[in-house]
Amino acid sequence: MGVAKVMNVRSGHSLTIGVDIGGTKVAAAVVTPGGRVLARLRTRTPDRSRSPSVVEDTIVSVVSELRREYKVRAVGVGAAGFVDERRSRVLFAPHLSWRQEPLRDALSVRLGLPVVVENDANASAWAEVRMGVARGVDDVVVVNLGTGIGGAIVSDGVLRRGRHGLAGEFGHMTVVPGGHRCECGDRGCWEQYASGNALTRQARELVVAGPPMAETLRQAVGDDPELITGPLVSELARKGDRACRELMEETGSWLGAGLANLAAAFDPELFVIGGGVSESGELLLDSARGAFRKGLTGRGHRPEARVVAAALGNDAGMIGAADLAREALPRGGRRRRQRRPGALPKRR
After folding, report:
1. pLDDT number for residue 166
2. CB 143, CB 270: distance < 8 Å
3. Which end of the chain, N or C, is surrounded by fewer C-beta atoms within 10 Å?
4. Pure H helices in the chain
5. What are the phi and psi torsion angles at 123 (to 5°)?
6. What SS3 class is residue 43?
7. Strand, helix or coil at 11?
8. What phi and psi, each to the nearest 5 degrees, are found at residue 194?
């Protein structure tokens, strides 16, 4: 596990590390105040059946390796799960084994640095609003399509976490009562129809069914459906494979239907679609926009939110987590002027 360097900058007064923890990966980066990534590491998330301490050990390992080359002041962790309002404890992580995990304090003791823990989608949203495609927009809903679906709400320029820190868990809205079982324990959650896991499941089911249209996909995995992944489906779709294009369009339709529901609830100016699945581009987003318009309450008689792809890609979670850690630090030895947590600086 070597450090991938982007610049030869070894120290700085305001460098922080952002860590992004998902269902399949742990990624970390050294980030400047302007959002530039100086170095990054990525490794697989340990098997979720293991003790939570194994994931904690992985975080400590990647942060420690980055600190060998860079002097940093704090660490921000974007965790795929429910993070409490104090941004210290992971209450529940559907794709990991964390339950009431005191992650902030445990990491701070082991690393000897201030640590902020934030929901991973909130961290990504913060990065996009501060430095990405949503810069200058006060009312934004971010939807991240990865292993599951994460989400975040920025309203009137403030990152809205909810009373208990659990706002934005859009992936667990019920869209099909009695539908597919979700890893959260319920049935019919949105992420069972519009996420990377959903795309993979649908592609495997198609190959097992054996229609002629799935021949290219079947050959690509040597008759083993278990080898099918979301990135493979996206790649074949971009190359024009009919079956994979239909799978992407179906995923996009489910995405758009969910966005219409979110528009009814939050009325944002902008939807930002991030996460690995979104990297398939306009094929997914065109389908999503069509379903969004079809399902939008009061369509034709109201302003319509734009639906765009995130600008910061897979770095968004790390950049946002690092920036949130920096925001929590005092400046110049004085206590930082208090403002609402997650509030954007006022424009001049």
Report:
1. 87
2. no
3. C
4. 52-67, 103-111, 120-131, 191-194, 196-209, 215-220, 230-238, 242-266, 282-295, 316-327
5. -65, -45
6. strand
7. strand
8. -135, 25
Q: Is the pLDDT of residue 85 over 70?
A: yes
The model's pLDDT over 146-184, given as tens digits with 9 standing for 90+, comes to 888 989 999 999 999 888 888 998 999 999 999 999 988
> Would you say 270 and 306 are in contact if contact means Cβ atoms under 8 Å apart?
yes
CA gap 284, 250 in Å, rounded: 8
Q: What is the pLDDT of residue 13?
A: 59
């499941």: which residue's tokens? 201
Q: Is 320 exposed, middle or buried (0-12, 13-18, 19+ CB in 10 A)?
A: buried
The single residue listed with the structure tokens 């990297």 is 279
Question: Mean pLDDT of all residues in the chain?
Answer: 88
pLDDT at 243 over 80: yes
Give the β-pairing of 4-5 and 37-44.
antiparallel
CA 22/CA 124 separation, integer angstroms: 12
CB 127 within 8 A of CB 275: no
Which pLDDT band holds residue 9 (cuts at 50, 70, 90)? very low
The DSSP output letter for 278 is G
Angle at which helix 242-266 crosses helix 230-238, to 10 degrees, equals 110
Strand 90-92's sheet: what is its strand order?
A: 82-83, 90-92, 99-101
Cα gap 299→212, rounded to integer Å: 39
Q: pTM, whole model, 2 decimals?
A: 0.82
| Confidence band for 306, pLDDT divided at 50, 70 and 90 | very high
Give the per-residue pLDDT at 109.
Answer: 95
Angle, CA of 33, 123 and 99, to the nearest 5°:
135
What per-residue confidence (pLDDT) applies to 150? Answer: 87
Site of tokens 């190359």: 239
